[in-house]
Amino acid sequence: xxxxxxxxxxxxxxxxxxxxxxxxxxxxxxxxxxxxxxxxxxxxxxxxxxxxxxxxxxxxxxxxxxxxxxxxxxxxxxxxxxxxxxxxxxxxxxxxxxxxxxxx
Length: 104
Ligand code: HEC
Fold this sequence. Notes:
With 104 residues, the chain is an all-alpha fold. It is built from four helices and no strands. The protein has helices spanning 2-29, 47-53, 60-70, 89-100. Helix 1 (2-29) packs across helix 4 (89-100) and helix 3 (60-70) crosses helix 4. The site of heme C has 27 residues, from helix 3 and helix 4.
């Protein structure tokens, strides 16, 4: 019994880290990391700052996913984020969910 539980926990852990890795890789593949880092402001705000800003905002996910695709400015300063037409709706949802969860 104990072995079964340990195995289940190990599987759950490895699944979680595989998907975190996949999201980080997606952010890299889609060029987000040219302007964003997890913990440091580059041209755009850090993913941790974005997560903190919207932690109580339930509507943020859909709004930010759209902004990732279409671009925008004026929330963090005057530097605009250009549109990211290389990102589809599914990918923008995935990326924003990962960012709002602290980009872990
Ligand atoms: C050319 C640089 C650049 C690239 C590439 C870029 N961003 Fe941004 N991003 C910015 C800037 C600048 C802002 C701040 C915009 C503002 O103040 O409204 C921003 C803001 C954001 C925000 C917060 C928006 C808000 O309204 O608070 C999210 C989420 C985000 N970016 C995700 C992404 C993702 C995901 C990608 C990759 C698909 C990406 N960004 C690619 C520059 C960039």
